[in-house]
Amino acid sequence: MSSIPNHIAIIMDGNGRWAQARGYPRFFGHVRGSSRVRPIVEEARTLGVKALTLYAFSTENWKRPEEELTVLWKLLRKYIHREVKDLKKNGVRLHVIGEIERLPEGARKELEAAVEELKDGKELQLTFALSYGARAEILNAVKVVAKKYAQCDLKMTEITEENFEKHLATAYLGEFSDVDLLIRTSGEKRLSNYLLWQCSYAEFEFTDTLWPDYSVEQFRQSLENFKQRKRRFGGI
Ligand code: FPP
Q1: Catalytic residue numbers?
Q2: Which residues pair with 125 in a beta bridge?
Q3: Tens digits of per-residue pLDDT, 54-83?
Q4: Which end of the chain is less enclosed by CB atoms within 10 A, N or C?
């Protein structure tokens, strides 16, 4: 088994606190935080990680002030404008999971165009979780399965973990849909409704570093720590 995790999921937390600690408005933390995405994506690809899933916006984040949301959508669009060309050149495929229909039209359309533009990428599957919540994702899958069962398209014995997973938002990741390593910055030690099913056997790496300060060196260290773990998947 490769010592490089196939699927890494990151909760990019601490932007607001980073800004407030420096006397800046919260949005400035997002500006700085968004600039950390490129080097981490690049490093993941170089190291041979197959899937990188970034929690960019949770369903709970809609409660934030309008001005902060506006900045987040602007940053997302900026990222796409700046990066699509290089992502394509480097074989990165982009996916979005979550209630993308809730996003402002401009951001949604640009995201969809970028997803289309990058659809041939084979090196790294990069996913932005946007307006995403894992319970809603699992419930959706339950509804699809229940409907198939009610219509006699699926037998009770066919409702297996393997078949169920095909209805989760991350189904496109196939054999890599299970998260191997979950990283959360900013000292919080919670999953916050992120990839609950996919993280069943994930190793967790919590760091006190706030996301805007999270460096490539630290990312490498997180992967180094992962190498030292003995993963037993319930065995001995
Ligand atoms: C958590 O910090 C971070 C977010 C809610 C947004 C994450 C977004 C980015 C890093 C930029 C998006 C850009 C791209 C390219 C995906 P917080 O605001 O909850 O920080 P706090 O816990 O300190 O308040």
Answers
A1: 13, 61
A2: 51, 93
A3: 999 999 999 999 999 999 999 999 999 999
A4: C
